[in-house]
Amino acid sequence: MINGNNQVLVVGAGLAGSETAYYLASRGIPTVLVDMKPHKFTPAHESENFGELVCSNSLKSNDIYGNACGLLKEEMRRLGSMIIAVADETAVPAGSALAVDREKFSSRITEKLKACPNLTILSQEITKIPELQDGYVVIATGPLTADALSKDIQDQFGDNLHFYDASAPIVAVESIDFHHAFTGDRYGKGTGDYINCPMDKDEYYAFVDALLSAERAHLHEFEKGEIFEGCMPVEVMASRGRDTLRFGTLKPVGLLDENGKRPYAVLQLRKENETGSAYNLVGFQTNLKFPEQKRVFSMIPALKNAEFLRYGVMHRNTYIHAPSVLNRDFSVKNKQGLFFAGQITGVEGYVESAMSGLLVGIAIADKILGRTPTVLDDTTVCGALQTHISTPNKDFQPMNANFGIVAPLPTRIKDKKARYEAYAKRSLQTLSALQGE
């Protein structure tokens, strides 16, 4: 039963909600976890179990010292993540990745939740954000939040709710070949913040041909028709004619290279973060498969050795404009006791979603148990993602774990392997210090 005497109410039993609920209840805090399963399912879900993986069974790399998502998992292990513990327990061979037996994974999560003292599980659809007089509410309903609750969120937060995710790839600035790029704004207006990646005629048409023949990612039926209205994929735009991009996204008008010559076509890169370690491919929203993005976009001369920190994605994804709505700990501004967790906050991916649920659980537990607030800085992947969702940004887009968002190292390390290892060692040192080790 949901009432004003509940200390914590978590809505949604996906990865984030399950993580939050388990963290709190396993620490003696009375918690209610409510999910609309099995009475109602989203278009992508079919199992009655919690923590269901609806796409891949891979939680991406498990390499702590060579991959940001691998490091994120280790940070979560050290912070007490139930989701990562279950993933380790139900892992299947997958090289350097952490992949799971998806049925055993969700079954084990469900078992642990049902056996957890202090946790009450209810099957009920929540159509409005609940209000608890003295407790905490966590909305963790995911990228496919049901229509009624989505409407209530939209009513409360206005235009800060989005219903699809259409984002362009992001590359590491160190990997851009500046022998084939130049900085500057159109017509010399601005402060030269854009990196321009020119193409000559042959390079442009070879790129367009490759783009048109590249393999696209699968979309669910319920996703088709929602994404393309708001943001045209670059490959769809190119299909309207081989010169369409040259007069649109890749137009060279107002741009002159270092020799004072206007290129045939130009891709502009825009700074993604304040430190300038990551750059966004402007206008390159795409639904190409990740390997295809790497292959095709690397045909642009300045990106021939590009290190992709995030690939472009296009899919149904209900998420809020987090910088306008959330504090760094995922609590709602000016609404005491209300938190959001999971992909609805603007983090992208299985592990990142679970991470937000873990951090919400930690933040609430700190308050209830009178502990010193746990603060993770940007030397950790967790802290960097917290900064991403809470830093003012009118062009906010969901983000996954990548080293481009973490705090720069005090000394620049050009070698990627050594740089990533340095990021990881620094992060783990931060966590050890935080935990008094």
Protein model, in words:
- The strands form four sheets. The protein has a six-stranded antiparallel β-sheet. A five-stranded parallel β-sheet has the order 6-2-1-7-16, covered by helices on one side. The chain has a three-stranded antiparallel β-sheet with strand order 3-5-4.
- The longest helix has 20 residues, at 350-369.
- The protein has helices at residues 15-25, 68-79, 82-89, 102-115, 147-157, 201-213, 227-230, 234-238, 290-297, 322-325, 350-369, 381-390, 416-434, and strands at 8-11, 31-35, 58-61, 91-92, 97-100, 119-123, 136-139, 161-167, 170-172, 182-183, 195-199, 265-271, 278-281, 308-310, 313-320, 338-340.
- It is built from 13 helices and 16 strands.
- Mean pLDDT is 89; it is low at 226-230.
- The chain has 437 residues and is an alpha/beta fold.
- It folds into two domains: 8-166 and 317-434, FAD/NAD(P)-binding domain, CATH 3.50.50; 170-311, Elongation Factor Tu (Ef-tu), domain 3.
- It is globular.
- Helix 1 links the parallel strand 1 (8-11) and strand 2 (31-35).
CA-atom Rg in angstroms: 22 Å
Tell me the number of helical segments per DSSP (H or I, 4 or more residues long). Answer: 13
Kindly state the number of beta strands: 16
> Regarding CATH, which class of the largest domain?
Alpha Beta
Q: Which shape, going by the Cα principal axes? A: globular
Order of helices and strands: EHEEHHEEHEEHEEEEHHHEEHEEHEHHH
Estimate what percentage of residues fall within beta strands. Answer: 15-25%
Straight-line distance between termini: 41 Å
Number of domains: 2
Low-confidence stretches: 226-230
**Helical coverage, percent range:** 25-40%
CATH fold-type name of the largest domain: FAD/NAD(P)-binding domain
Largest sheet: 6 strands, antiparallel
Which superfamily, in CATH terms, is the homologous superfamily of the largest domain? Answer: FAD/NAD(P)-binding domain
With strands numbered from the N-terminus, the spatial order across the biggest sheet is 10-11-12-13-9-14
Report the average pLDDT across residues: 89
Q: Please identify the structural class as seen in this structure.
A: alpha/beta
CATH architecture of the largest domain: 3-Layer(bba) Sandwich
